[in-house]
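User: I'm writing a tutorial on reading structure tokens. Could you give me a worked example: one chain, its sequence, then its tokens, then a sentence or two explaining what the tokens reveal?
Assistant: Sure. Here is the example chain.
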Amino acid sequence: MFDTENLCMGCMNDNGGEQVCSVCGYDSTIQNHSQALPTKFVIENRYIVGKVLSANGEGITYIGWDKSTEKIVNIKEYFPLGVAVRNPDATVSISQEKKYAFNEGLLEFMEINRFIMRQAIPAVASCFGVFECGGTAYAILENIQGITLRDFLDRNGGTLKWEQARALLLPLIDAIKEMNDNGIIHKGISPETIIVGRDGKLYIKDYSIKNLRLEGNEIESELYDGYAAVEQYGIYEMPVGAFTDVYGFSATLFNVLIGTNIPKATVRVSDQSLSIPARFVEVLPRHVLAALANGLKVKPSERTKDIETFKNELVYGEIPEQEVKPVVQDISSKKPTKEQKRKKQKSNVKYALISALATVSVFLVIGAVLIFTVFKDDVFGTKSQPSESTLASSAPEVDEIGSVDSDAVESVKLYKVPAFTGKTYAEIIDDEENDKFEFVIKAKVYSNNYAKGKVCEQSVKEGSEVERDTKIELTISLGKEEFKMPNVVGLDEQTAKLELLKAGFLYDNIEVLEKYDEQSEPGIILTQSPENKKKVTAESVVKIYKNTYEGQAPMGDTDDSAILSDILATTP
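And here are its predicted structure tokens:
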């Protein structure tokens, strides 16, 4: 059995019993806060408690050692600050008046972590066990070797290109969706709660009880300003939901792509505009900007309703027709006209036109783009009765009364339908000439004649003449059902994934496995299956083998910040 006597309580590596660890620099004479468990404390005769990694209103997270599996873990203790009290024997007690709040949170804490343990969702930090002990509850979590997305961005120039962000963040969307579908809302999605692992994958951590990320509760709230939605501050009398995580993810993606934090949601209530330097607008796809604008709507009733809808907007440019959503405080309950909805759907076009005229130094405002500047009544006139002067000026000249044909009807203007096949959905809705039509994505099918993402069929033929607002159904190509496997050997993992996505493979069907080869460059893809040029389909499972050899690093050059994902947070 492994000897735990020489374990460093800062990193759980065997440092030979040194006072100052040569691996992480932790000084063993430093003690945890008095309200935290002491270092080397053993829970359930199995888990050794190390130093505090983080603390918030829900509880305290420690680095730990699992004696049974002989692996490093994170130990998350339910210990709501201001509610729980640490006893001399390390157990937890609570006052009678706060018992209900404590027990309610404890049950939720256990339910969330048990769900994560049962489902084992990719991109969500794994949970290995949940149990009650010492008057509270504990969750044993995966200790992910990596750094926060915030640190990752700081080390990589502050921003990522859309192609890079797309490959990294897409798996997170699927993980958030699965959690949301089961009624679990994160409410704290931000660069601080996303980990970039040493395996090149992103993980989302810190799923917590609901009251932690809502103001006005008995426990101390943890809100990430700039990423928390306005409903978390109690501005609107509306519960949090999937749309809350849409806001957090949209704000995170905004930071990844633009490099700046958006203002606090409570500030944006009076001004929800967002400034973007023109150099970013010029390179970011229009549908990405439109998806961000919809996902960052301040009012919950106007925001993208769920993460799956956001993904479709973000990846495929599918901007759905706005639904009539629940009324919230001063939001008008008047149903928008068909023309107003059409203008709202096409507003990203006007955004693109404005950005095209901007100089490099001009800051563009997403929010202003989404405001209706042209209304149906202004352009086409209202349906109210015309005035006498208008009737007089528009009346036909006749020789005598009774010479006008009483059966005559007002002529209807017709519009010629252009060819939409061969274009992407985003290109079609971005073209202002197409404002006169309504579009619906009917289906997605494989096509040998059209590339992935292109329209391969339209319900109304090219050249047909139709009335304004005629609905046109579009079929989107999924690409060729069969194509040749590209060669990704020698590429890094991220570039390899991008090439496979471009070829037409589904993201979930790309598996990254490990292989060790000291003779090859660290981190590259060593082999692939299927092999290059072999005929495959989009549903084929692709396995790429990444070299885990890291090269020879100088002694004593280990960066502790690359191992620990959170800084030490002291309890009040």
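What the tokens reveal: DSSP finds 15 helices and 23 strands in the chain. The radius of gyration is 29 Å.
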